[in-house]
Each structure stands twice: as C-alpha cells, then as structure tokens.
Amino acid sequence: MSVAAADIIIDCVKNKPNALLAFATGNTPLLTYKLLAEKVKEQQIDFSKCFCIGLDEWVGVPPNVKGSCHYDLHEHIFKPLDIKQSQIYLFDGLSADILSECKKMNELVREHGGVDCLLAGIGVNGHIGFNEPGVDPSLEAHDQLLHPTTLASGQNYFKEVTKLEKGLTLGLSQAMNAKKFLIVANGKSKADIIKKTVQGEVTNEVPASYIQMCENGIVIIDKEAASELTK
Ligand code: GLP
C-alpha cells in the first residue's frame, strides 16, 4: 500500500514538477511518507518546484503541538523531503477568521488549477479529511463540527488530552476534482468502512464513497482492509 502510494506521488511530480500536492496526517500514510523520502533521495527527484497543502487541521490546536497537522506534516513529510516554507500552505487552526482561512485555501487551489495529487486516509466513519458523515459534497474548504468517533480517535494523536471540537478541511469537491485522488487504508479496523466506501451506495453518510464517482480515484488497501470485500 505504502509503496504504491509513494510511487504515484513520485510519478505525479515527475510528470509535473510544479504539481500541487495535498497530504493527510494520521497513522496510515506514515510509511508512505518514509518511503517517499527514501525514493526521492535515491532517484533524485526534484520536489523543489512543487507546492504542498495540508488536507485538514484541528481548530484551536497550536502548530507546535505534536498531533496538530502542522507539526505532523512537517515532521513526517516536509522536513524529510526538504520542502521549504515557501512551498507550503496549511490551514491555520488558530485563525480568528475561519472564513478567510478557507477562502485563502480555495484561492490557492484555484490558482494552481486544482489539486494534482491528494493523498487521504479514511476515518472509521468514512470521513475524508474532516468531511464528516452528512457533509455537503459540493463544498470546498470549510470548517466542520467533528463527529464523536473522530473526537475519540483524535485523542490518540496527542500526548495530552486535547480540546477538540471542529476541524478545517479541504472539501470533497476539491478531492473529487483532483487529478489523482488517493485513499489509503490498512488493517482490520478499516475493513467495514472500506466495504461501504467501494461497494456500498454513494452517499454523504459515507463521505469516502464519492470516490466511486471519480475517474481519477484510487483506493489502495492491504489484505486486512480488503477482508470484507465480496466483489
Ligand atoms: C484523522 C485525520 C484524517 C485521517 C484520518 C484517518 O482524523 N483528520 O486526515 O486521514 O483521521 O487517520 P488514521 O490514518 O490514523 O486512521
């Protein structure tokens, strides 16, 4: 799963050095990021012209706190890949003006002609970024009240109990319009939601299920995450 995802990101940058890349946090893509950094060094791929954005961010969590998307993306991908600050734009979870924060992100995505490659994990409730069940799939970047399962699993990323309530996220329309929309999932805990995502009805109750409508959508899973598929 991780090799495949890293290779797709590398191909994207080889074909378009100034690609706009969107990255998720969470545990699932960690090995992808490690392999990506190794492969980029080995193959001497030039990432100096690409631009990187974060898929989402926890509202109210400072960027220097481990568990914030800022901190984790810098640690796991931007530092290892030597991506400069001028090549990065992340949602500011501390912004007092959430609307303008989302507007900035939308303008940036538009200026680049859309996202070239978006790598997402999937929540056990089917969320993509912080597009939670019930989300309007036509939305671009927006803030979202977090679902109880997201609030509970979210605590696992932090060293101390952290107040979580809302998230900032790219919208499903931006993911669906990405030239490559990748979802990675591994482990038994994702088997049920992967079945709903790829074999179930396309519904905003399972936000990830919209990937079925994307010609450029790719779901990459391991055997355990695939264990409930019947087709
Ligand atoms: C988190 C993040 C998502 C992530 C998802 C799955 O809440 N906001 O961007 O993809 O949940 O995380 P994990 O890969 O740790 O299962």
Could you walk me through the main structural features you see in this protein, from its secondary elements to its overall organization?
It is a single chain. With 231 residues, the protein is of the alpha/beta class. The chain has one domain: Rossmann fold. The protein has helices at residues 2-15, 30-43, 69-81, 98-111, 148-154, 172-176, 191-199, and strands spanning 20-23, 51-54, 56-58, 88-89, 117-120, 142-145, 166-169, 180-185, 217-221. The strands form two sheets. Strands 4-2-1-5-8-9 form a six-stranded parallel sheet, covered by helices on one side. Strands 3-7-6 form a three-stranded antiparallel sheet, with helices on one face. β8, α7 (191-199) and β9 (217-221) form a beta-alpha-beta unit. The longest helix is centred in the first third of the chain and has 14 residues, at 2-15. The model has no long low-confidence stretch (mean pLDDT 97). The structure holds 2-amino-2-deoxy-6-O-phosphono-alpha-D-glucopyranose.
Question: How is the secondary structure organized here?
Answer:
Elements: H1 2-15, E1 20-23, H2 30-43, E2 51-54, E3 56-58, H3 69-81, E4 88-89, H4 98-111, E5 117-120, E6 142-145, H5 148-154, E7 166-169, H6 172-176, E8 180-185, H7 191-199, E9 217-221
Bound molecules: 2-amino-2-deoxy-6-O-phosphono-alpha-D-glucopyranose.
Residues 24-28, 55-56, 120-121, 123, 129-130, 150, 154 line the site of 2-amino-2-deoxy-6-O-phosphono-alpha-D-glucopyranose (GLP).
